[in-house]
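Figure 6 in text form: structure in, sequence out.
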């Protein structure tokens, strides 16, 4: 809700210099890149954990097969 309020206040006043809002645009891009990078890192960590779980399950299955024979 605060972003909507900020945009409303920003749009109400006349902007004499259109380049004055470039900093906000760049900040938005930086924030989105950080969020995207954090998401990709999170996915990589999850994938690593899933691979470790699969390896552990395969070892348990192999041990179970060895004791059953």
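Output sequence:
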């Amino acid at each position: 809700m605060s972003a909507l309020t900020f945009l409303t206040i920003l749009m109400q006043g006349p902007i004499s210099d259109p380049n004055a809002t470039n900093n906000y645009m760049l900040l938005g891009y930086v924030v989105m890149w950080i969020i995207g990078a954090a998401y990709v890192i999170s996915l990589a960590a999850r994938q690593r954990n899933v691979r470790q779980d699969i390896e552990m399950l395969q070892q348990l299955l192999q041990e179970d097969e060895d004791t059953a024979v």
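Caption detail: The chain has a mean pLDDT of 87.
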